[in-house]
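@channel sequence for tomorrow's demo:
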Amino acid sequence: MKTSIPTAVSRYTLTAIALHWVLALAIVTAFGVGLVLEDMALSPAKIKLINWHKWAGVSILALSALRLIWRLTHRPPALPARIHNAMPAWQRAAHHGTHHLMYLLFFVVPLLGWAYSSAKGYPIVWFGVLPLPDLLPANKELAEAIEPLHGLAAWTLMALVGLHVAAALKHQFIDRDGLIDRMRPGR
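structure tokens (generated this afternoon):
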């Protein structure tokens, strides 16, 4: 049974658009801070950035939960028929696979960071006000095992973000199909 695909380019809701761009900015910024932290010597500035990185991670986790709830309760617009029909099956599969993996990593990356911080014995106090429970007991060996997983997951997420951005730019500047307008703010 073939499903009907609308011909007009319908937009995401304003809430979905806002969550998309706020999360995009937060994720890329938190990743950049994480990279900077790796090369810093221990100092008050590094501790301040570590705390900021943790706060960003918890915020990303909370916003990701909100975004997932919104997505599950507000069906995203279908691809317009002309775009759907122009895309080879592998591109449609890549589109869906990339989105699903990104959603998964929106949760995996901050949860691994939280688990690492807990295992390292460093509490997370969100914005210096709200102490969060440890996910794991302090355990140096476990912390050493989790740390590279957090980094690998973050790099994987950034690779998928890069792929997502490349696909959006392809649709905008090569295909010129207006697909990006569905998520562009203020249009």
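heads up for whoever presents: The beta strands are 125-126, 130-131.
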